[in-house]
Amino acid sequence: MRLAKANVLPTMLAGVVLTHLHSDHVSDLNDVITTHWVMSPEPTPLRVFGPVGTRTFVAATLDALAIDIGYRLAHHADLNEGPLVEVTELAPSTTFELGGLAVLAGATDHRPVEPSLGYRVTDADQSVVIAGDGVPCASLDALVKGASAYVQTVIREDLVRLIPSARLHDILDYHSSVEQAAATAQRAGVKALVLTHMVPPPLPGTEHEWRELASAFHGLIVLGDDMVTLDLDTMDVTS
Ligand SMILES: [Zn+2]
Ligand SMILES: [Zn+2]
Residue 170: its pLDDT value, please? Predict the structure, then answer.
């Protein structure tokens, strides 16, 4: 849905890059696979990159789609084979090319979710790190060092602690708090820290609280809701 909102058709994707296989990060992949398949005028593989386990997840997703794939093959005379998905499972420190950009995978710490990966995406001038879920660690520091922007999923520890649920408190030990993300950003010397996957979602009027919690970082702090854009040259933020 967000791709559509960004005017990107699945067939325009150079690939899909997964940080880890938690359901909130991958459960929509089936729609990307299906729409990429049926919208491609001729058989075209969808490239999917991710940590070890991605191959199993994609195979199981295709299994789940088998009945639907059968319907579509029966209905479309010019569709003669099912979706083609080309999976690459990445080890940390692997570099690959995607849509003209260099991408470096780095280990993150989201245990017991492992392996999990963050990505440093680099063009001729700038780098952006998409860290995914996890707590600070040395390999994340190395991945983020000197990047222009660092995109980190974060939780508000102070708010999560207010909810009397042990099951919810469990999420605190494997996600970066806003303070931890700010500390990582400051150590790495990035220009911009983009907070994303914010839990709980910021209530209107509380945005300043998130910025205050991130104040150990002295660069630009962006509350990266869906569809927020950061221009790396001007550091302008639009939503
Ligand atoms: Zn996760
Ligand atoms: Zn998550």
Answer: 86
CA distances from 148 to 123, 131, 181, 213 (A): 11, 13, 15, 21
Same structural domain, 85 and 96: no
Q: Are residues 135 and 215 located together in one domain of the fold?
A: yes
154 and 46 fall within a common domain: no
* Structural domain containing residue 100: 91-239
Q: Which ligand is nearest to the CA of 21?
A: 1
174 alpha carbon – ligand 1 mean position (Å) = 8
> Does pTM top 0.85 for this prediction?
yes
User: H-helix or E-strand containing 160?
Assistant: helix 157-160
Asked whether residue 13 falls in the same domain as residue 130, the answer is no
The residues assigned a catalytic role are 24
Q: Tell me which ligand sits closest to the C-alpha of residue 111.
A: 1
221 CA to centre of ligand 1 in angstroms: 22
38 confidence band (pLDDT: 50, 70, 90): very high
